[in-house]
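Board notes (copied after class):
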Amino acid sequence: MADALCSTLVAPRAASVWLSKPTRDGVRRLKTAQEHERLLSTPVVAKTEHFVLHRLNVPSEDGLRASVLVSKRHARHAVTRNLIRRQLDALVQAHSDQLPPTRHLLRLIRPMNASYSSASSMQLKKAVRHELERLLLVNPSPLAP
């Protein structure tokens, strides 16, 4: 019995990844690191106070793909990171007919304001939703260099 190790010490930690299964509207997430790297190498299409949008304007045969990069550096609480991801999912599902069938990558570039009452407050949710709507639904043109 003394030789048996706790399974949490032996088992490797699971990676935090999003599966590329379709949502109810057929929207898929970006799957591979190569897809993310390719999008990150494209110019920024639109920018708000906290987010930037990269878009690859090559029509995708498998439809709209969207993902978000939220680092722990800018959103320390997992609750906040998940809130941002869920807001993107909800927005893309609600407006998938208005978005082009291309690849979209949203990136959080600044920390969210610490003045919100909690990491999952309704005010934070509304602020994130408002910024994401401005990025995705305004039909942005590339920014000047």
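Comment from the instructor: Strands lie at 44-47, 51-56, 65-69, 103-108. Residues 14-24, 141-145 have pLDDT under 50 and may be disordered.
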